[in-house]
Design a protein that fits this description.
CATH superfamily of the largest domain: HAD superfamily/HAD-like
Helix content: 25-40%
CATH architecture of the largest domain: 3-Layer(aba) Sandwich
Number of domains: 2
Number of helices: 5
Bound molecules: magnesium ion
Strand content: 5-15%
Shape: globular
CATH class of the largest domain: Alpha Beta
């Protein structure tokens, strides 16, 4: 069975937080580590004087000059395509950073053309069979198979987001190769 697979970029295929926190720590004299980002609303974890300014870093498209792909990203995307599946990247951008992640994905061989790339603010509108994402809110909105990519910020606090995890069928994967193996089991 050949399916359509939507893959999130930030926090899934792209190790955005490494560079995001590097810039934050440099500018605000802090030492915040990725493992310490235990909730989605990162502005609550940075220094109060920084606060929501943390999101301004995402408007600076040079951040993607330094963002590296997640482990096995290229290999897993290539294997899924070689298996005959339709693989698209589905990402939410800030207005100022729109388009930048296409160039990033192209550079790392994760897309072949713009047909493989969607910028979408509401992932509930995606028409794909599977969505792999690190934000539980996106997975709640999505209508197909929802797979959560394990990250420190999606392990707890679903209740504070007003999300009822039991209302949606969510599978958790720890790695991209683990995602590939899960899909293979489902489709066997
Ligand atoms: Mg994400």
């Amino acid at each position: 069975m050949k399916i359509t697979i939507a893959l999130d970029v930030d926090g899934v295929l792209a190790r955005l937080h490494d560079e995001w926190l590097r810039r934050y720590n440099r500018d605000w004299d802090d030492n915040l580590q990725v493992e310490q980002i235990t909730e989605w609303e990162i502005h609550k974890l940075v220094k109060p004087e920084c606060g929501t300014h943390i999101y301004k870093y995402l408007d600076d498209t040079t951040i993607y000059d330094h963002v590296l792909p997640e482990k096995d990203a290229q290999e897993v995307v290539q294997r899924l395509r070689a298996d005959g599946h339709r693989v698209v990247l589905a990402t939410t951008s800030t207005p100022k950073s729109m388009g930048r992640k296409y160039a990033w994905a192209k550079h790392y061989g994760l897309v072949e053309s713009t047909k493989d790339y969607i910028e979408v603010g509401d992932k509930g509108l995606l028409r794909a069979d599977v969505l792999l994402d690190d934000y539980i809110g996106n997975l709640e909105a999505f209508k197909g198979w929802s797979v959560i990519y394990n990250q420190p910020w999606n392990k707890i606090n679903h209740h504070t987001l007003g999300i009822n995890l039991r209302a949606i069928a969510v599978t958790r994967v720890l790695t991209l190769s683990g995602f590939y193996d899960t899909l293979c089991r489902w489709l066997a």
